[in-house]
Amino acid sequence: MIRSDDGCVVYLNGKEILRHNLPQGQITADTRALKRSDGLEERLYQYFKVDADQLVSGANVIAIEVHQVDPRSSDLFLDLALRGYPDDDSLRPKLREQARQATVDYHSKHFVGPKIKIRDGYVDGGRGMKLDETGQAFSRRELIIVDRQRDAALKQHLDFAHSEELKALEPLHRATRLAKYVDRNMSLDKNNRWSTPAVVLLTREYANEGVLLGDVTRLCGAGVCRHRALLFKLLADEAGLDVALVRGNYGDASRVGGHAWNELYLPDGRRFIIDTMQRRIVPLGSDGSQASSRYLTVKNKPWYQNAEPVEAMKPKKIAN
């Protein structure tokens, strides 16, 4: 995968293997990029597949040239990452047996309970995802894959979940700290968290293709509720917290939209909504009823209409 300001062409052992944001035909030192890369677009990686047959035994040489749309431009950059896969099927989203219960529960019930862990091979393609009899997944949007072995970014997140810093905290503070971590790592920047254009681009470019969970921010700069809630659940599992993954809608009579969030179950019986997209931690009970009433099922029924009372506590915002 690659991103550049503005365009680039890549050669492997002297032969062109890809070009990005450059015209067709012969490339010379005077060739200009087709358009300027700035704002959101320059944050996004582009995926390209290269056949391994183009490699040779021994040393292989990659050469890259970067072209600007305007020779007077004051900045230029290139960012390239290479990954090798054993065959064409290695990133094809296919449910693994060890992750079947979590995947099927979320797909059919829109809920993964706190005692069910997110295992490698978990696949989520949104509400419209289809699973055939072999476990092959299909969707009109990107298919998020959990794979701890291949996902370098996820490994870094797991290091934090296993850290002594996190283990030293009591469960509610541990969950709060973890929610801040997910929010920070799934945001474009402090002042630009609402990344709808980026995720629309991700959905369009990678519809029905597998995307590693840790690559979401590489590909579109940020993650929305479905990415955040899954990452929080996975890391909470690793951090020794009892957390559920929930999908439904959010809103009121005037406006409602699809949403995903988490529930935290504490040893003393208290429960909290953990919403890293809304930056909220909401106690489930009488004091949190007004806030929690906005969390709906996929059929727009109140999700928490029978929530058990808990100790009074105002909804908390997750600080930066």
UniProtKB/TrEMBL annotation:
Residues 131-278 form the EDR1/CTR1/ARMC3-like peptidase-like domain. Signal peptide: none annotated. This is EDR1/CTR1/ARMC3-like peptidase-like domain-containing protein. It comes from the Bacteria. The lineage of its organism: Bacteria, Pseudomonadati, Planctomycetota, Planctomycetia, Planctomycetales.
